[in-house]
UniProtKB/TrEMBL annotation:
Functional summary from the UniProt entry: Required for insertion of 4Fe-4S clusters for at least IspG.
Native organism: Pokkaliibacter plantistimulans
The record's free-text note on cofactor binding: Binds 1 iron-sulfur cluster per subunit.
UniProt KW keywords: Iron, Iron-sulfur, Metal-binding
Name the UniProt record assigns to this protein: Iron-sulfur cluster insertion protein ErpA
One Pfam family per UniProt: Fe-S_biosyn
Cofactor: iron-sulfur cluster
Subunit composition and interactions: Homodimer.
Gene name per UniProt: erpA
Family according to the record: Belongs to the HesB/IscA family.
Residue ranges of every copy of the Core domain listed in the record: 10-110
Amino acid sequence: MFEEALDAPISITENATRKVRSLIEEEENPNLKLRVFVTGGGCSGFSYGFTFDEAVAEDDTIVERDGVTMVVDPLSFQYLSGATVDYKEGLQGSQFSVNNPNASTTCGCGSSFSI
């Protein structure tokens, strides 16, 4: 499923787009895409994961913004619908984060949640 960034059921911020583009340039592989996923575990039940991937499955949701592609598998998508992926730098370090309206609770580190 292809989605434009402005109409997407999951979105990526300008900060995250800029960071992804920078990391892809460092790797010198323009075929890389940011894969966002959800796994079981973490202090709140589920955890967010981020990786780079060249492959896109037929049933992945694809979101493009400013030349950057983000992909989400169907299982993770059900937990991430309506979410926004961001990149933050602060006192606790730099990291990708997810603002997820589906999460009923999140942990202090911001990388795990429960529904």
